[in-house]
Write a structure and sequence with these properties.
mainly beta
Length: about 150
């Protein structure tokens, strides 16, 4: 079960209707290139990994985290990226790989954090390390922006 961050309202905004049809994980790269791009930091161009987003602090254009677009209004990211912040402290950029001045930033209206996310288990890694960001508006899917 995933719960909302305690620093935000207890109920998330209204549910987003499901799209009738779209395919996830489609890239203009061939499968081997996608694996190399993600696993080995091979440079890619805007739109080649259309599900990839970057997340910024609300007062900056510099990326601080990455994420995956999983619906028109939802981004999956690490729990670490949402640790100690509210939705108003985060913005999301879609369709762009490189941070550049003027890239459109989307507001985040809600952060769903896993209730068991913790750094206190005595391990060198985070457990339950994910959160879901709810965007303020639906993203328009294009060839370079899609889940």
């Amino acid at each position: 079960m995933i719960t909302a961050a305690t620093s935000q309202p207890s109920q998330p905004p209204s549910v987003v209707p499901m799209l009738e049809s779209f395919e996830c994980g489609k890239s203009s790269l061939v499968a081997d290139d996608v694996a190399r791009s993600v696993g080995y930091w091979t440079p890619v161009n805007d739109g080649e990994l259309p599900w990839q987003v970057y997340i910024t602090d609300a007062n900056s254009e510099a990326p601080i985290c990455g994420g995956t677009l999983i619906s028109p209004r939802h981004v999956l990211t690490s729990g670490q990226c949402s640790k100690g912040v509210t939705a108003s402290n985060r913005k999301v950029v879609v369709g762009k790989i490189k941070a550049q001045s003027g890239n459109p930033q989307l507001n985040v209206t809600f952060i769903y954090k896993h209730p068991h996310f913790s750094t206190n288990y005595g391990h060198s890694f985070y457990e339950w390390d994910f959160s879901i960001l709810l965007l303020s508006e639906c993203v328009e899917f294009t060839s370079s922006v899609q889940p």
